[in-house]
Amino acid sequence: MLAALLDFLRxxxxxxxxxxxxxxxxxxxxxxxxxxxLGAVLAFIVTAWLGQPIPVLGFDQTIEQPIPFSHTIHAxxxxxxxxxxxxxxxxxxxxxxxxxxVTTQANAGIPPVQFCAYCHQVIGKNESEPLTQIxxxxxxxxxxxxPINWKRVHRMPDHVRFVHEPHxxxxxxxxxxxxxxxxxxxxxxxxxxSTCHGDVASMKGTVTQVEPLKMGQCVNCHRDNNAPTDCASxxx
Length: 236
Description:
Elements: H1 2-15, H2 18-49, H3 71-75, E1 79-81, E2 87-89, H4 95-98, H5 113-120, H6 129-138, H7 164-173, H8 194-197, H9 215-224
Antiparallel strand pairs: 1-2
Helix pairs in contact: 5-6
């Protein structure tokens, strides 16, 4: 039977036109390509509504900053290791100490380099590379002060309008709506940040986006808290 099958295949190979021999594998590879493209499109649609971007093509939410900044040491309350390997006590600073406009404006605000230098012109060892970079940026050492181009971690599409102030105010008035916890300060506005940003005070090294912050999550939160869900509330 095997010999008969081999003879049949040889005959088919001899009589099959060359163009068909080429077309069959091309169609097979093309079909796999179509499936791959459709799968990628489906994954994009799902993550666009529910989850974070797929960590490829530069969409990874772990972003390296121009100067390493330790949220654990500044905002945390435990004992942490600094850039020199020394054990230091966390300062437990309130988020609003640096992000000063979060309770009054749309954005949370990023402090200028002089704000950082106000403390670090005297605090911190000279051997620390991150502090050296800050002092150089502030003009404390060297003669070429430069602003620090901090990179944004939590992003939303340009057509989405998000204002921090009413969200912080609502959560302060309705603490039962706060989700997540923080190993840092939990008094005042800092107590609500974990709802969207997670436990930033425990993030060693770089800050990462832990919540999807996509339309599905926002709409569900608005519904749960009797907030408006019409398009104009969030979209330009």
